[in-house]
Specification:
Blueprint lengths: L3 H5 L8 H27 L6 H22 L3 H22 L8 H19 L2 H21 L6 H59 L6 E2 L2 E8 L7 E7 L5 E8 L4 H20 L5 H18 L6 E9 L3 E7 L3 E5 L4 E5 L20 E4 L5 E5 L1 H4 L11 H11 L5 H15 L7 E8 L3
Antiparallel strand pairs: 1-2, 2-11, 3-4, 4-5, 5-6, 6-9, 7-8, 7-10, 10-11
Helix pairs in contact: 2-3, 2-5, 3-4, 4-5, 4-6, 5-6, 5-7, 6-7, 7-8, 8-9
């Protein structure tokens, strides 16, 4: 991490690309105005052709430097070269200028200011600008004094004073601006590093979240199909199909409140607690297993000072199509093939992480059955609470209900893809994880 001392340390030209582009336009405009002025003066007979020719050469040189600066990966180096080249070329240019334009003090002032802007921004020190002010003041004095110029001594002194005063002010101001821009530049770099690190952590969390899902879930006499589409942020969706060493079969689905790494971490803790409970108590009933998962999760959330909860449904499956479930989650959809209808199974339990030492009376067991051709459809709220583009309407359970009914003849994988397509048509950006788990009953 960058320390404050590192941020305050000047570094030549870092973070000044945009101001230097503005300076290029400024200096280019000055050269064009000077050239046009010399053309007018020459046309009126106030100066010879040497004046517009010399200023035209200066203009062409400046334009070439500007184009190089615009295209350079390190424009500050080019601009330093411009300041040095300008200081070297300026005497020759002004020696060739004659007549009315000899000792034209606004030209010296603009040249001086341009150099002060460059040196102040890039070196972040007023000394170099002050040195340039002295140089151009002397150059102006020599040009005006030895040229054929009728400027009085008083006027000459006033012009030099203006060049010096404005130049020194610009030099100090630009050096302070350069330091400020440099600090802002380093802060942007630090912010980008922090964001990159955060996104990397979130990417790892999403990968872990995905790796914990069952790769090829199976149940006796049933076809199981699951899919989770992660959101733009790490969510807390979870589904699982578990077979214990004692031969019991469980289905789990849940969703942690909120988003971010902590939600993903809470989901992982819930899964670890569930697997541990199933292994340590192979013959425990559903309510007892749910109680253990709840208590483990609450202890961990308290230790981490997190105020989260988790919708969770724990289902035990017995071959032959018998299901028993506890917990609290979104209603299950069951498509009944013989009746060509969809039933909803409402769980009447309690979320994980809400009540410490959860009593079993808060966990009533729901039993239902599936016959051959029936379909159990489980999901999380990322689908039904998916808002459209202007956040005025959720996708809703009614649309999900209709898609399940219309897709009764489709495979579970095709049905899930059709639902995802409809969700993306509703809005292409998923703000929450979208999870589906489908159990198609076969022949026992």
């Amino acid at each position: 991490m960058t320390t404050s001392s590192e941020i305050s340390a000047p570094s030549l030209g870092e973070g000044h690309v945009e101001p230097l582009k503005g300076l290029d336009i400024f200096m280019g405009g000055f050269c064009v105005i000077s050239f046009l002025t010399s053309i007018v003066a020459w046309n009126l007979g106030y100066t010879s052709t040497a004046s517009p020719i010399s200023i035209a050469l200066f203009l062409i040189t400046n334009l070439l430097i500007s184009q190089i600066s615009f295209r350079s990966h390190a424009p500050y180096k080019v601009e330093i070269g411009r300041a040095i080249a300008g200081a070297i070329i300026a005497p020759g240019t002004f020696l060739l200028v004659d007549g009315w334009m000899t000792g034209w003090w606004p030209g010296f002032l603009i040249m001086c200011l341009g150099g002060c802007i460059i040196l102040g921004l890039l070196t972040q020190k007023p000394f170099f600008g002050a040195l340039l002010v002295f140089y151009y003041s002397v150059l102006f004095f020599l040009t005006a004094y030895f040229g054929n110029n009728s400027t009085s001594t008083y006027q000459l002194a006033m012009n030099i004073a203006v060049i010096a005063m404005v130049g020194l002010t610009f030099s100090q101001t630009m050096s302070l601006l350069g330091q400020s821009l440099h600090k802002e530049y380093l802060q942007r770099i630090e912010l980008k590093k922090t964001k990159d690190a955060l996104f990397a952590e979130m990417a790892v969390a999403q990968e872990i979240q995905t790796l914990l899902l069952p790769r090829s879930p199976t149940l006796p006499y049933a076809l199981v199909t699951g899919k989770m589409v992660p959101a733009t942020e790490v969510g807390g969706d979870y589904y699982d199909v578990i077979k214990t060493p004692s031969g019991r079969h469980f289905i789990a689905i849940g969703d942690v409140s909120g988003h971010g790494v902590t939600s993903g971490l809470t989901m992982m803790m819930a899964r670890a607690s569930l697997v541990g409970a199933l292994e340590s108590l192979p013959n425990a009933n559903l309510a007892t297993i749910y109680q253990i998962v709840n208590q483990c999760l609450m202890d961990n959330l308290e230790r981490m000072a997190l105020d989260l909860y988790m919708t969770f449904a724990l289902i035990e499956y017995e071959p032959g199509g018998i299901f028993r479930s506890v917990g609290k989650h979104l209603p299950f959809f069951i498509y009944r093939r013989n009746e060509n209808r969809i039933d909803e199974i409402e769980l009447r339990g309690t979320w994980l992480g809400i009540i410490e030492k959860l009593p079993q009376e808060k966990l009533p067991e729901i039993e239902f059955s599936l016959r051959e051709g029936d379909r159990l459809f489980l999901y999380t709220d990322g689908s039904v609470e998916h808002f459209n583009n202007n956040n005025s309407e959720m996708f809703g359970s009614h649309r999900l209900h209709d898609l399940i009914l219309n897709g009764k003849s489709d495979s579970a994988a095709t049905l899930i893809e059709n639902i995802l397509t409809s969700l993306r048509d509703h809005s292409p950006v998923f703000e929450d994880d979208v999870t589906f788990l489908v159990v198609d009953m076969g022949t026992a």
